[in-house]
Amino acid sequence: MSQTQLPPVQPYHPTTFLERGVAVPFTTPLLGGTRARPAADQGLELVIPNPSGGRGVYVMPWAAITSLCQPTLHDKVFNTRIAALQSVTPAMIRRIAQEIAAEGLVGEEAMETARQATDNDKGDRLLTNYLLLMNLIAQVNLLPAAAPGSSDHMYLGQDASARLTVAWVAPRIGQSADWIASALEALADLMANIGVAAVGPPVRIPRLISLLRTTRSEIADWSREQREDDQASYARMICSVADFTLTLAGSVLSRANGLTANMVQLLRTWAADPESVVQQAGRPEWLLDGWEQICLIWNFAADDAARRAALVEIAGLVPVLPREVNDWCDSLPEASAAFRVRRLVRLNEDWRTGATVFDLIARNEHFRAVTL
Questions:
Q1: 293 CB-contact burial (10 Å; exposed 0-12 / middle 13-18 / buried 19+)
Q2: Is 151 domain-assigned?
Q3: Mean pLDDT, consecutive 10-residue segments, the chain of 372 residues?
Q4: How many Cβ atoms are within 10 Å of 214's Cβ, its own excluded?
Q5: Phi then psi for 270, rounded to 5 degrees?
Q6: Which pLDDT value is given to residue 294?
Q7: How far apart are CA 125 and CA 190, in angstroms?
Q8: Which of 58, 103, 106, 121 might form a disulfide with 110, Cβ 3.0–4.6 angstroms?
Q9: Cross-strand partners of 44
Q10: pLDDT value, residue 67
Q11: How many Cβ atoms sit within 10 Å of the Cβ of residue 225?
Q12: Does a structural domain hold residue 149?
């Protein structure tokens, strides 16, 4: 690696989540924790944690990556797919990751998992669309307004109830019945990862919150039995940021679910200002972006030695909380709680884990087969 060809290390405390970028599941070990964000001119640029373990990040285009490492074929293909994007979201990156895995670039296990995940996502969208429509029907509740004994009190099938409800709602928000059907489909795409309140089985974001809560508890429990100060410091920092993230995730998820408490108003807002709905519904996924990888690293560690190495690796991957999060809550954890370590490493060894680069590539490819 030629240090003279690398850009200068930059301080890193982003203002917004978009500036922080989206975590990209590269398999090259030195690209662990890399995020993609819109570049100042066009396309995307990569934000790469300092490989030495020191503070700061490298910000560079993909063309400069070879000055840092030799990326895997998976990562080269991944970059090709995202290079033309003008904007980027966690949902976009996850979809591209699934498409690449489904093509077999990270092994047969991941290929099958990706195909199953695509089917599951489709099922989640269909279920969410159905639940949004049922919410609309229940909230409009046309039947009780009918006169006692009228034929309207007879049982109506779901299709008839849906048509009746949509016909009633459409003129009241100045839209057509076809527009409402399209709007419900678009909202289902947007909200499939967060679900509709507590109705239906847990979807991706609630499952990720549960996974993070379990991982946080396991790290805390394990660290209480360790005597090394460094291990305790890493664990305290990780658990502190995880606690804050879990609290905030519960809050923003509740607010996002609350959008469906008044479906007529939600449709009216979608017609007038869809971006405000996109932002509120997307907050849980932006907040939790990057934490799934951390949970996978911890769960992959099979013994105490592996967990000590995992803790060091995780400490360098804990997502930075942008200042934008101040708009979502009243306080932030201290940035100084983030720790870094420095030590000499051998050829083909990763500084964080001590494992060989080739073992880490295999591990990272395995992660693609167990993602939520």
A1: buried
A2: no
A3: 61 87 94 92 87 79 87 93 88 94 90 90 93 93 52 60 92 95 96 83 91 97 84 89 94 93 96 96 96 96 91 90 82 45 41 62 85 74
A4: 13
A5: -60, -35
A6: 96
A7: 9
A8: 106
A9: 38
A10: 84
A11: 8
A12: no
What's the CA gap between 198 and 216, in Å, rounded?
Answer: 23
Query: Of all residues in the chain, what percent are helix, strand and coil, respectively (each to 5)?
Result: 60, 5, 35
Closest CA to 204 of 288, 260, 132, 280: 288
Q: Rounded distance, CA 118 to CA 365, Å?
A: 18
SS (HEC) of 238-270: HHHHHHHHHHHHHHHHHHHHHHHHCHHHHHHHH
Rounded Cα distance between 65 and 68, Å, is: 5
Q: Which two tokens stand for residue 121?
A: 């996502």
Closest CA to 203 of 190, 214, 216, 215: 190
Question: Is the CA virtual torsion 236, 239, 241, 243 positive or negative?
Answer: negative
d(CA 246, CA 331): 14
48's tokens: 């790469």
pTM over 0.90: no
Strand 44-49 relative to strand 57-60, pairing: antiparallel
Instruction: Using alpha carbons, list the distances in angstroms from residue 286 to 19, 243, 339, 372.
Output: 11, 16, 23, 15
- Reported residue count of the chain is 372
What distance in Å separates the CA atoms of residue 299 and residue 301, rounded to the nearest whole number?
5
Q: How many helices (H) and strands (E) does the chain have?
A: 13, 4
Structural domain of 112? 3-141+156-367
Work out the burial of residue 358: count CB atoms within 10 Å of its CB; fewer than 13 is exposed, 13-18 middle, 19 or more buried.
Answer: exposed
Q: Would 195 be classed as within a structural domain?
A: yes
β-strands 22-23, 44-49 pairing:
unpaired
The total number of structural domains in the chain stands at: 1
Is 352 inside a domain boundary? yes
Cα 303 to its chain centre, rounded Å, is: 28
Of the candidates 214, 213, 287, the residue with the CA atom closest to the CA atom of residue 254: 287
CA–CA dist 290, 287 (Å, integer): 9
Bridge partners, 48 (sequence order): 58
Where does residue 339 fall: left (phi above 0), alpha (psi -120 to 50 degrees), or beta otherwise? beta
